[in-house]
Amino acid sequence: MTDVRRRLREAGDATKAARMQAYMKSALPFHGVNSPDCRVIMRDVLATHPLPDGATWLATVLALWDDAGHREERYAALAVAKDRRYAGHHDPDVLPLYRHLVVTGAWWDLVDDVATHLVGPLLLAHLDRVRPTVAAWATDEDRWLRRTAVICQVGAKDRTDVPLLARAVEANLDDRDFFLRKAIGWALREHAHTDPAWVRSFVEVHGDQLSGLSRREALKHLSPA
To answer: Quick one: how far is CA 195 from the chain centroid?
Structure first.
């Protein structure tokens, strides 16, 4: 979408760009457009340039993502992917797209958005069809797919597939990667709002395997038993 790239470029701030790139440790440079301004730009562009069908929607997401010269273009791709006007295109057939976004995004700001706002809702809507894929991602060689499997149910509350959550966490308990340990703690902490007893029990059973980080995060908002 040429208009997206033009507006992001015009809204850029070189001083902010350098700080944002350093903070995110991004190989891609930034234009220096903050999140609220990105949202305004995407709201206007999406309203002005409706996408006629699923094939165009998919091609637009991939073009913004794969051809991105600046990180904000990948944020724009995710805005297109998540836009409610295209909710009808979100079915299990788009899982290869989500996998591509996770594996090529390969950093928490992009991966977490895909996991919690794309994969998670798809899992809730099509549990029987999506569950096997998420379960397989939990043991994939790619750490970002594993993180996605762990955190994709954040926000699901009482609709959480608890056995799937347990499987994703247990598959990664021995991994020393910071992002996986943080993900485990986050997922357990969020589920504790819905079922604190289950989280307490899980932490007790797996106490020797849970990292200190994961344990602290999991129990962060729970009062002592």
So the answer is: 23
